[in-house]
Structures are given as C-alpha cells and as structure tokens.
Amino acid sequence: MWSGLPDQNLDCFFYPYLRSVDKSVIVYDTNTENILYTLTEHTRYVTTCAFAPNILLLATGSMDKTVNIWQFDLETPCQARITEDQPKQFTEDWSEDDVSMWLCTQGLKDLVDIFKMNNIDGRELLNLTKESLADDLKIESLGVRSKVLRKIEELRTKLKTLSSGIPDEFICPITRELMKDPVIASDGYSYEKEAMENWISKKKRTSPMTNLVLSSVVLTPNRTLKMAINRWLEAHQK
Fold first, then answer.
1. Are the beta carbons of 185 and 191 closer than 8 angstroms?
2. 38, 78 in Cβ contact below 8 A?
3. N or C: which terminus of the chain carries fewer CB neighbours within 10 A?
C-alpha cells in the first residue's frame, strides 16, 4: 500500500510501501524504482505512515502499539535510524515532553502550553477527569475537553492491554479487547464479529486497519484463531 508524501528537500520522489505480513516498511525512489531503505523495527503489522512536510522524517504506526519516527541519512544510502525523542511505550512513564509530543500527534497542539504549565506527565495525564480539565487546566471548550478525555480513555485501554499480557493477535483492532467470536474481513484482518458488523453498518465500507474500501462485506468465521484464544484462556485460568 502506498502512503505518505514525497520529501520536498530531495531531487527525487520517494514513498514508503507497507508490508504488513513481515512488519516492515520499504522506501522506494519512484524515479529509479530502487529500494532506498528497509525499516524493520516494528513487531506487529504496520498500518500507517507519513512523511514530515519539510524535513527528512517518517512516522510509522503499528499494531504493536508504537509509533516510530525515522530519520534518514542521505549521505549513506539504506541507512535510517529511529529518533530517540519518542514517547515511551507505557504512558505512565511519559515525561512532560512525551505528553507534549502525544498532544501534537492527536491534533491537540494548542494544549501543549497549558499542559506544560500544569506539569502534566504521563501519570498525571491518565488521572485527568472532565472536572480537572475544566477547573484546573481551564480548558473552556466542551468539544476539546471531550476529545482529550476520549484520547485519554484510548490510552488507558492500550495500557490495560499491555499490562494484561494478552497476545496482540487476540485483540480486536476496533474494540482493543480480547475477541470472543473472531471473523476475517476482506482486508485480511480479524475482528470481533459484532464490532465489525457495527463498523460496516455505521461507517463507509472501508477497512478499520487500512482505510481502503473493502472488496466485500462478507465476514468469515476465524475458527483457527478462536481455538487459539480458547487454548490461551484455558492455560491462563488454571
């Protein structure tokens, strides 16, 4: 799947190609069709990526619940490294700067100064409530407060999943909960049946994972995955 934008500082155009099966991202020069970089740090399916508009940075997101920021070395072809200034995987370990980065990625850049003035780190972030957002942080907009709370709840859900030790392939990409009745959609990914049926009925016919149009809305029971989940549950209930 092609994604992202060409870097405006280069004489050539290059795009990343996501290979979810082997969890890698391959960056091609579209003029020569040569492979420039192969990025392989993710441990689960890579689902999204985007170039920074004016600098040589690429962000990649994955079902391993991480976002990697890659910096390219133009003088040494095929060399790219993950930048060090990225949020830690566990939200409660985030510094104030990590929280600021997270706000920017969620489209909440205007709140960075407010959060910094109130010394909001990862632990404080997870404890924010609608009352504290309104009374302590003085965020007047109800819509903004609702968005912040929704994003914080997503972080809490991810933290709960990480702490539970549930294999990621057993987690529904929509609900982020352990699947009970997994089905395979036409995009090749597995989802909780009820969640995917609701997705199809309420949303456009697009994949929750790739955002591409689904070739079919037929959902096929994933009996192999369901058996694996049941075996895992039995082993952990003993």
1. yes
2. yes
3. C
